């Protein structure tokens, strides 16, 4: 972007110094400046879609769409930014407009389905995905297909879609975690444990998978912490999760011990664990 800015300044200087230039020369300079503006816009759009604050991106693309409503890339940017900002109902409306445009792609329809799921409109999301040709095989498409199969309790379909999705990406931790949670809700605790552990191997910082792993182990009455990367604070939080799982299984003494260990492990005051221990002690006393 810095190179584009410098080039723009040089061209602007050339334009100012050429007062007696031919009209054709001025037209060429103007065209060059317009081309540079397009490049700068594209760079700014990329920034807004990746590192910018989501709500700032929404405001930026809202203004841009109002200025150039015919540009589908700006409408996509607005729809994507609304999803990033957690504004699912508005994102659905924005993606509906995108997919109704002549230049809409199958990937736009996948993103539309994603927004519908985020807005808890599962039947509509399923209809959108069904409208996409089966030849459109992408990670995003199969991840959503798996989630919809899960919601319909079509377990074999869900497993097939999760497996396909995980093979279509180099970063499968998120979909493996989702697949594990699906197994957890079905009561397949060993299967869930295996998938959570695999997710952590791919992304050691994924705390959600670590916490879910504790739920799967706790459901099997295995209350030992597994060997996974964790900070001291994470260790305390995972002990807390294991404690609650033990209490749910009526293993009260183990739960009490784990809560005390969680409180002692946390580098600061662990309010949630302290409240859980106080409530447990009161219930036992009564």
Automatic annotation (TrEMBL):
Which PROSITE patterns does this one have? PROKAR_LIPOPROTEIN (PS51257), TPR (PS50005)
| NADP is among the record's keywords | no
Query: What stretches of residues are TPR repeats?
Result: 173-206
> What keywords is this UniProt entry annotated with?
Lipoprotein, TPR repeat
* TM region positions: none
Q: Known Pfam families for this protein?
A: TPR_16
What name goes with this protein? Lipoprotein, putative
């Amino acid at each position: 972007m810095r190179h584009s800015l410098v080039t723009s300044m040089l061209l602007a200087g050339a334009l100012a110094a050429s007062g007696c230039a031919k009209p054709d020369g001025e037209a060429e300079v103007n065209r060059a400046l317009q081309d540079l503006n397009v490049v700068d816009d594209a760079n700014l759009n990329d920034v807004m879609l990746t590192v910018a604050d989501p709500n700032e991106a929404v405001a930026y693309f809202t203004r841009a769409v109002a200025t150039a409503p015919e540009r589908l890339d700006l409408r996509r940017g607005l729809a994507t930014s609304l999803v990033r900002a957690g504004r699912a109902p508005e994102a659905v409306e924005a993606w509906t407009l995108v997919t109704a445009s002549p230049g809409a792609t199958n990937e736009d329809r996948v993103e539309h389905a994603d927004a519908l799921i985020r807005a808890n409109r599962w039947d509509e999301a399923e209809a959108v995905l069904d409208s996409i040709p089966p030849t459109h095989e992408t990670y995003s498409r199969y991840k959503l297909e798996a989630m919809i199969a899960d919601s319909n309790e079509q377990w074999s379909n869900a497993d097939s879609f999760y497996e396909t999705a995980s093979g279509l990406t180099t970063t499968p931790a998120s979909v493996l975690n989702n697949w594990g949670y699906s197994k957890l809700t079905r009561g397949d605790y060993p299967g869930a444990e295996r998938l959570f552990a695999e997710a952590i191997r791919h992304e050691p910082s994924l705390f959600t998978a670590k916490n879910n792993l504790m739920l799967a182990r706790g459901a099997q009455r295995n209350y030992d912490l597994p060997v996974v990367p964790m900070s001291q604070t994470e260790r305390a939080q995972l002990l807390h999760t294991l404690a609650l799982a033990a209490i749910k299984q009526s293993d009260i003494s183990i739960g009490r011990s784990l809560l005390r260990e969680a409180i002692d492990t946390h580098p600061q005051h662990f309010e949630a664990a302290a409240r859980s221990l106080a409530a447990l002690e009161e219930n036992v006393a009564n």
